[in-house]
Amino acid sequence: MMRHVYLRPLALKQLRHAWGVSARLSSSTSSAAYEHILVSHPKPGVGLVTLNRPRALNALFTPLMVELNGALQSLNYDKNVGAVVLTGSAKAFAAGADIKEMAQKTFADAYTDDFIETWSELVTHFKKPLLSAVNGYALGGGCELAMMTDIIYCSASAVFGQPEIKLGIVPGAGGSQRLTRAIGKSKAMELILTGRNISGVEAERWGLAAKVFDTADECVEGAVSTAELIAGYSQVATKAAKEVVNKSQETSLREGVDYERRLFHALFGSQDQKIGMAAFAEKKNPEWTNR
Asked: What is the mean pLDDT of residues 277-287?
């Protein structure tokens, strides 16, 4: 039976401590560094983070989230990594988060402890392109986690949803805001008010996911392949590209265009702009310095 679970808050102290810890990364899975996630490097320039709580369908809870944010922070500062893929198992990207961690909370507990606020730290502080490969269940906090990434790939059998209404609550980690921006008010309202789930095929058709694949393996391989392509470009340019696209979600069109132009002009001060344009004129492959 599918578990409807939701995210427990991260103590800001725990989160910042985790981000200060440098995880050991290698070409193989870093099992010694983490208990609830796996970190590997399947392709040059690509980091792969796999949620690893198979018995709980990758249900999100505080220890896992502390590890996830710590791993992402380490990857963020790793100069050899240009893009990262976040995935789960074939059965579940993340089925939600553990209700036991929040069931007995009072309003005062949630409000004074800033319950779930630090969830957004993942998006705020991670500057490199972040892709998600979603297979199986991505419900509640799992759906919200996927929507925090920059590009969502999924398999046809993936299941997305915000079923919080069935628990007597609403999404609390950005689900109502990001889902509405992705698929529009009417569709988002329907899903959130009914608790209905959608398939990976629907997610791609509605614009929530960028691509849909037939199988889970193809989904992960596709995400890693795209991440490898992105990692092959200048990290200065990819960081700027992510920044300007994200800005479009927060400002008016005029403000967004002005911001984009300023960043476009700023890149003329980078070494990689000179390298890229010179290589194009000379019909050579650019050798980026990431400066």
From this structure: 95
